[in-house]
Amino acid sequence: MTPDLMEDRALARVEHDARLASGVGKTESGGRSASYGRLHRAGSVDFTHGVALYLDDITVSFDGFKALNSLSLSINVGELRCIIGPNGAGKTTMMDVITGKTRPDAGRASFGSTIDLLRLRENEIAQIGIGRKFQKPTVYEELSVFENLELALAADRRARASLFHRLSGEQLDRIGEVITLIHLKTEAQRTAGLLSHGQKQWLEIGMLLMQDPKLLLLDEPVAGMTDEETERTAELFLSLEGQHSLVVVEHDMKFVDQLTEGRKTVTVLHEGSVLAEGKLADVQANEKVVEVYLGR
Ligand SMILES: Nc1ncnc2c1ncn2[C@@H]1O[C@H](COP(=O)(O)OP(=O)(O)OP(=O)(O)O)[C@@H](O)[C@H]1O
Asked: 112: CA distance to ligand 1 center in Å?
């Protein structure tokens, strides 16, 4: 894509967001207006049908260009799903829709079987149990690893009231559990700014885990990590699978291979919709996929 085109698209996105924010040209979402509904309390999400996330026919246009084009996708409860696709396939836009950052022009998005994500604001979506990890680590560099986790606990309303007194035994246990899980137990008192890139990524994942999200969205989590860090990250995600649903957007095929263990479903996005879905080996052998992505 030429720089001019990229600039046009960036401008279009700003205009698109501004239009939606002002309500001008507001479009219908899945046949309903995109007004905000009541917030469902965390815990009231209904996963009894086994589906954690359901995207149906989602379209997002930026000035006529369809970043998502009738995208439909479903993630099961406890599933670890890797999403791959070339640059510009729509992966980030998809995460933006799920987290309420971008409103689609059409389609439906639900969390569990009861919660309409298109009716919730970004902060409400975070509160009902959808956590997002951006590519770049964002931790409080001046604070220790422990303090970062403690602060993340404070972001959880249920914990906030008691945090300003003393951490309860239960909260200390939770921090201990998470710090062990993210391989930072021996670094608990270390200033976060002194951690390696990979350790910062784990810390941020730990901070998300403090809020016990039901669904975790992870955008290129191993970019910039060493091989050893990448391997440990795979182990971490595999240990979270089952208790959380995970959607991992990644370009690193070795990592995707580790995560999918030769049997899990991988989704390939291209031009804003699903191009192929299946086991990694199968999608890698798929001619359409080779043409648009892997063969390059
Ligand atoms: N703000 C925007 N305005 C216009 N077009 C945009 C905007 N944001 C994204 N796009 C376009 O939508 C398409 C999908 O972008 P998106 O960032 O979702 O892709 P991606 O799969 O995440 O790519 P990458 O792997 O490079 O991160 C791209 O063609 C991109 O240029």
From this structure: 27
Q: How far is the CA of 28 from the centre of ligand 1 (A)?
A: 22
Q: What is the ipTM of this complex?
A: 0.95
Per-residue pLDDT tens for 18-67?
A: 444 443 333 333 333 333 333 444 447 888 889 999 999 999 999 999 99
Domain 3-294 classification at class level? alpha beta
- Kindly list the protein residues whose Cβ atom lies closer than 6 A to any atom of ligand 1: 9-10, 12-13, 62, 65, 67, 85, 87-93
Bin 206: left if φ > 0, else alpha if -120 < ψ < 50, else beta. alpha
Digit-coded pLDDT (tens) for 169-188: 888 899 999 999 999 999 99
Please check the confidence at residue 80 and state whether its pLDDT lies above 80.
yes
CA of 104 to the centre of ligand 1 (A): 14
Residue ranges of domains in the chain:
3-294
CA 278 to ligand 1 center in whole angstroms = 24
Amino acid at 87: N
